[in-house]
Amino acid sequence: MSKTVLLIIDVQNAMFNGEEGSVYNGEKVLNNILKVLNKAREKDVPVIFVQHTDKEGEYKEGEKTWQLNEKLSPKEGEVVVQKGTWDAFYKTKLEEELKKLKAEKLVICGMQTEFCLDTTIRNAYSRGYEHNVVIEDAHTTFDSKVLKADKIIEHHSNIWGGRFAKLIKADKVNF
After folding, report:
1. Model confidence over 96-119: pLDDT tens digits?
2. How far apart, in whole angstroms, are the C-alpha atoms of residue 117 and residue 123?
3. Which sequence spans correspond to the domains of the chain?
4. Is the dihedral of CA 60, 156, 107, 41 positive or negative?
């Protein structure tokens, strides 16, 4: 059995009440993330939270909008990795933490679909994590100038599924 790690990306207050407003289906997606988080904790699956951190603005360390959503409440032993780009691996301790855990498979959810999730999912695959799962009803984003959020989500899920990851709904996740 391969060692699985739950990776929760950028579920921060700015996604719900930041400069851009709230992400598409924010509360529903958050509830699905919490379902998966609770399942992981019940099975003692390691959890890593990724937190976008900038030098200024709403993602500046210490700002209320920078903080992880209070419903997540990382527990003792759960790792929080801060990142400054869309890629959770770039100039962070994520790879080091995954190696410590002997991770072979990542279960990925969070925010924003076309930025931090997409970049991290593709990089994870390129780094040899080839059996990943994306929780298809536990990632979201904002509307863009070109596409509505639901179409961005649909497009990226279509690209990831069967190529970079397997898609599973939150209710179907078993660790």
Report:
1. 999 999 999 999 999 999 999 999
2. 10
3. 4-172
4. positive
**Torsion (CA) 110, 8, 14, 72 in degrees, nearest 10:** 120
Return the residue matching tokens 């509360």.
Answer: 27
Is the pLDDT assigned to residue 1 strictly greater than 60? no
> Which CATH homologous superfamily contains domain 4-172?
Isochorismatase-like (3.40.50.850)
pLDDT digits (tens, 9 = 90+) for 122-134: 999 999 999 999 9
Kindly report the pTM of this predicted structure: 0.97
DSSP letter string, 59-90: GBTT-TTTSBPTTT-PPTT-EEEEESSS-TTT
User: Positive or negative, the Cα torsion across 170, 114, 129, 61?
Assistant: negative
